[in-house]
Design brief:
Blueprint: H1 2-10, H2 12-46, E1 57-60, H3 69-74, E2 78-80, H4 82-120, H5 132-146
Antiparallel strand pairs: 1-2
Length: 147
């Protein structure tokens, strides 16, 4: 059983998956920083700093007027937190857009490298045709056949 486990772990696809998860976690931190630190402040300026995350409706229970979503939740009231959901959707769309742009840039760089390598590769040699002696011999044989 231990041997089978070692074989399973040593397979390339398991190691590739582990590396992919680790790189994905690091990439997630980068994308979250781009969204949180760079894009969200710009969007906040454009829409006037509106934060939808504290928008909610009280379904049952008592909540002091103007209380934050966290205060409403802490009071034990049943709340319909549509603002938090709306912010999650907006953040998802922003993150998806940033990932799309990053993947597009990486693909563009890959294609540029591939084009450079293709241009640097020597052109395939032209197929060798018959030599001058072969052509003259063929002409001679054709003239003999006519005569």
């Amino acid at each position: 059983m231990l041997t089978e486990f070692k074989t399973f772990i040593a397979r390339g696809n398991v190691l590739d998956l582990a590396v992919g998860i680790i790189i994905g976690a690091a990439f997630t931190a980068i994308v979250n920083s781009i969204v949180t630190d760079l894009i969200n402040p710009i969007i906040g300026l454009i829409i006037g700093g509106i934060d939808f995350s504290n928008l909610y409706l009280v379904l049952s229970g008592e909540v002091p007027g103007g209380a934050s979503l966290q205060t409403a939740r802490d009071s034990g009231a049943a709340v319909f937190a549509y603002g938090a959901f709306l912010m999650a959707v907006i953040n998802f769309l922003i993150i998806a857009w940033v990932v799309f742009l990053l993947v597009k840039a990486v693909n563009r760089a890959r294609h540029a490298v591939a084009r450079k390598e293709a241009a640097a590769a020597p052109a395939p040699a032209a197929p060798a045709g018959p030599s001058e002696a072969d052509l003259l011999a063929e002409i001679r044989d054709l003239l003999k056949a006519r005569a």
